[in-house]
Amino acid sequence: MQEYKNISLQGLWHNNPALVQLLGLCPLLAVTATITNAMGLGLATMLVLIGSNLTVSLVRNWVPKEIRIPVFVMVIAAFVTVIQLIMNAYFYGLYQALGIFIPLIVTNCAIIGRAEAYASKNPWRQSAFDGLMMGVGFTLVLMTLGGLREIIGNGTLFDGAELLLGEWATALRIELFTVDYPLLLAILPPGAFIGMGFIIALKNAIDHYREQHASKPEKQVTRARVTAQS
Amino acid sequence: MTFRIAPAPHTKPARSTGQVMRLVCYALIPGALAHYVIFGPGIIIQLLLATITAVATEFLFTQARRRTSHNTLADYSAVVTAVLLALSIPSLAPWWIIVIGTVFSIGIVKHLYGGIGQNIFNPAMAGYVVLLVSFPLQMTSWPLPAELSNFSVSFYDATQLIFSGYTADGYNVQQLKAGVDGISMATPLDTLKTGLSQQLTTPEITNNPIFSGIAGVGWQLLNAAFLLGGLALIATRVISWHIPVGLMLGLAVPALIGSAIAPDQSIGLFMHLFGGATMLGAFFIATDPVSAATSNRGRLYFGLLIGFLVYVIRTWGGYPDGVAFAVLLANMCVPIIDKYSQPTVYGHKGSSS
Question: Quick count: other Cβ atoms within 10 Å of Cβ B312?
C-alpha cells in the first residue's frame, strides 16, 4: 500500500509531469484556453498514459534494449489512434476544438518519459497505477491553467462543457463577470506561458514553505573523541 | 582632524540612480508638452494615473518581497517607466488600460525578475506590448492632431472620456477621430500601411491631409520634441550616443535602400525617422541602462538591431509601428551581444574598443 501511496504522491505533486518534469508543455500551452479543452486533452493523455504504461510494462521483458524506443513509440501511437477515433466518433465538437493536438499526444514527452523511466522497469500493476496518477496530475495542472485563463480572458468557467460531457453540462457554465474587452493576452499563447510560470512559482513557494515549517528531526550529535582514553 | 580611509573603490559615480532617472524625466518634458499641444489634455491624466499606479505597485511589490520600499521609490525608476508608458499609449484610452499596463510593467516585468537592475526586458515596452496584444482597438485609437480635429477636447472632456468612455456631449473616442470631412483617420504610419496594402502608391496616400510636412501632422513635432530632449540627455552624458545613432542608422539605411528600389511602395526615410515612436524609442526606451547592452560597441550593435527590426516590422509586419516589439526582441539578444562585444582588457593582445 505504501508503494501505491508513494506513486500517487510522485504523480500528483513531487514529480508532477507538468510542474516538475516540465514535460508535455506543447499541448499544455496550446489548448488550455478553456477548462473544457484542458479537461478533454488531459483525459485523453491520461488514457494513453495508462494504456501505454500497462503495455510497455507487460512486454518489457521481450523487448531488446536496443530498439525499445521505437517499440514504445509504436505502442503509444496505437493508443493515440484509438483515442483519436473514439473522440472523433463520440465527442466531435471537442475533437474539432483540440484539432492537431490529439494526434500530437504521440510526441508528448511525459508519456514516453514514463514508459522509459518507470514502466519499462516495473511490474504492470504499479505501471498502470503510475500512468493513472501521472495522468491525473497532468490533467489537474491543465485544468488549473485552463480555468485561470478562461476566468481572466472570458470571465466564464466550463464554457462549452457540453462538447465533452453531453447536453446536461450546459448547466455547468458559470458566468463570473462580463467584460466588454477581454484581456486577450490570457487567451493567447503568451498568457499560457505566463500563467504556467505563476503556477510553477506557487508550487515552489508551497514546497519552500513546507520545508521551512516541517518539524526538523532531532539532530544527532556525534562527538569525536579528541583526547586519548586514559 | 582625522583622516578617514574608506575602502575601495575611491571614485564616486557622477550621479546616483535617482539623479539619472530625474534627468530622464526632465528630458521628457518637451515631448510631453508637444503631446499636450497635439493630442490634447488627456496626457496629463494618463501621466498622473500611470505615476500613481507605478508608485503604488512598486511599494506593494517591494513590501511583498520584504525589501525596503524607501530606496526603490526614491530612485524614480518606477516613475520613468510610468511616464514612458503613458507617453506611448493613445492619450484618450480608458483609465484601466494604463493601470493594467503599469501594474504589469512594474509588478511582473520588473519585480518578478528581481527588481531594478535585474529585469531582462524593458518594463515600459513589455507593458505596452501586453496592452497592444490584449486591447488592439483601444491601443490604436489615437486621437486626431488638434489642427485636423473637428472637436477640441477640453480637460473636462478628456477626464470624462478616460473614466467613462464618453464626453459630456456623448461622443466616444471613435467619433472624435472623425476628421473634417467625417472620415475617420488613423495615425500617419497606420494610414500609409493600410494604403500600401490596398495597392495604392505612396504619393497617392500622402495626399491625405494627415500628411503635411515631412512625417505627418503632429507626429513630426512630437518626434522633434523627443529628439530635443534626447540630445539634452546626450549632452549631459546621461546616455551615450551609441544606441540612438545605431538605431537611426539601422532604420535609415534599409529605408534609403527601400525607397531607392521602390519609391512608390515604401515608407519614406523621414516618415521612418520622424513618424511613429522612433525618437522616443531611440533616445528614451532603447537606452534603458538595465536591459540594453553594456559595452559601447555592444550598444551600437544593439541600436542597429533595433533599427533594422523596426524597419522590418513597419514594412512587412502586421502592426503599423514596431518599436516596442523591436526593443523586446533586441533585449533577448543582449546576452549574446554582450558576449561577442566584450572589450579587451588593457594590456591583452587584440583590439580594444
Answer: 15
Tell me whether residue B314 is in a domain: yes
Domain that holds residue B89: 15-147+149-184
Torsion of CA B6, B7, B10, B13, to 10 degrees: -100
Buried b (16+ CB within 10 A) or exposed e, B136-166: eebbbbbbbbbeebebebeeebbbbbbeeee
Burial B276-291 (b: 16+ CB within 10 A, else e): bbbbbbbbbbbbbebb
Disruptive mutation site among A154, A180, A185 for chain B (greatest number of B CBs within 10 Å)? A185
What's the pLDDT band for B352 if we cut at 50, 70, 90? very low
Contact B134 A183 (CB under 8 A): yes
Residue B71 lies in a domain: yes
CA distance A184 to A124: 45
pLDDT, one tens digit per residue, over B205-248 is 777 767 766 667 778 888 999 999 999 999 998 899 999 999 99
DSSP string for residues in B23-82? HHHHHTHHHHHHHHHHH-THHHHHHHHHHHHHHHHHHHHHHHTT--HHHHHHT-HHHHHH
